[in-house]
Design brief:
There is one protein chain. The strands form three sheets. Strands 1, 2, 5, 7, 10, 11, 12, 13 and 18 form a nine-stranded antiparallel sheet that branches. The protein is globular and about 40 Å long. It is about 0% helix and about 45% strand. Strand 14 and strand 15 form a beta hairpin. The protein has one domain: Exo-inulinase, domain 1 (Jelly Rolls), CATH 2.60.120. By secondary structure, the protein is an all-beta fold.
Length: about 240
């Protein structure tokens, strides 16, 4: 893993190289940091500190629009390797901007009410304060979709790698996938989800989207490891 132009500030552009995959990412941190994961093949660690509201986030190019071309796909391996209070809040998916750091969709602090910081976004949410089950979430032109538990797959476990996949099709219809690794770090494929695997019209089709991964430690130290991020789509148009 290699980051160019790292200056230790709150926002720093760079180039992420992992197993021959390269992409431009905007890095946003508030009270945390992003460091080389020091793993074979490359990885990045997103770390949060213990300050309330501290987040660490990496966001790819603002380049995808459903009306221009589908499918639009974001796939990546994630591992919550440290979660000091079992309270990590994670969003993985697509959002409508890459200029500022935010958790696109999350629970409001201190409660279980879903809140959107983005106007259009779709992806996975993990709110470990609530439980360890990944949920499908979305917001379409400011209107939140349901918070749907993705059952039929293994929950998030500290120290265990999983592969997440978000695929957006025509009309903003979205499919979710959760994949597992064995103890020898071999990918076993994606599970068959029994609920929440697909969502219709998850977000606006005319909005330009960027892939993103963000973590809020909920005032605790959290380390989220990221490897093999891959995003693609026929309508890729770099706009920011």
């Amino acid at each position: 893993m290699h980051l160019k132009n790292y200056e230790g500030g709150k926002i720093y552009p760079g180039t992420y190289v992992d197993n021959d995959h390269m992409g431009d990412w905007s890095m946003h941190v508030t009270g945390g940091t992003l460091v080389d994961g020091a793993l074979p093949g490359g990885a990045m660690n997103l770390l949060t500190d213990t300050g309330e509201g501290d987040i660490a986030q990496m966001t790819g190019p603002l380049a995808f629009e459903v009306d221009v071309g589908v499918p639009i796909i974001f796939e990546c391996d994630l591992n919550v390797s440290v979660d000091a209070s079992t309270a990590a809040a994670i969003f993985f998916g697509f959002t409508d901007q890459n200029a500022a750091g935010e958790i696109p969709i999350e629970f409001e602090d201190g409660g279980a009410n879903l809140a959107a910081n983005a106007t259009d976004a779709v992806g996975f949410m993990l709110e470990a304060e609530d439980d360890a089950t990944w949920a499908a979430v979305s917001v379409n032109a400011g209107t939140l979709g349901a918070n749907t538990a993705l059952t039929g797959s293994t929950d998030s476990v500290v120290g265990t790698w999983q592969r997440l996949r978000v695929a957006i099709g025509a009309s903003g219809d979205t499919t979710y996938g959760i994949g597992q690794y064995n103890t020898n770090n071999l990918f076993l494929g994606f599970s068959v989800l029994t609920a929440g695997e697909t969502r219709s019209a998850a977000l606006s089709t005319s909005v330009v989207l960027a892939p993103t991964i963000s973590v809020d430690g909920r005032a605790a130290a959290v380390t989220l490891q990221v490897r093999n991020p891959m995003f693609r789509g026929p309508g890729m148009e770099v706009t920011g």
